[in-house]
From TrEMBL:
InterPro entries: FAM167, FAM167_domain. This is Family with sequence similarity 167 member Aa. It comes from the Eukaryota. Belongs to the FAM167 (SEC) family. Signal peptide: none annotated.
């Protein structure tokens, strides 16, 4: 009985580690997508500004909606550090 308890405990610990690893991978993937969206939006804005006359900039122009939702703005995107795991 004691051996079975130890085996179950090891399995549970392995499962817990696997779940944590999957959560981390999923979070990193989401952050990577948000950064790619923001980068693409800024590049697109730069390309458009080269073609068009300088017009008034709207706040947060070029940033993806998810980044704006968590408070990342054009002013502070360069000061934040993101890890891609």
């Amino acid at each position: 009985m004691r051996v079975q308890d130890q085996l179950l405990a090891r399995q549970l610990m392995r499962l817990r580690g696997d779940i944590n690893k999957l959560k981390i991978e999923q979070t990193c993937h989401q952050h990577r997508r948000m950064l790619n969206d923001a980068t693409f939006g800024l590049e697109e804005h730069d390309e458009l500004s080269d073609l068009l006359c300088d017009g008034p900039l709207t706040p947060g122009f070029g940033l993806s909606a998810p980044l704006r939702l968590i408070g990342v703005t054009k002013m502070n995107i360069n000061s934040r550090r993101f890890s891609l795991c």
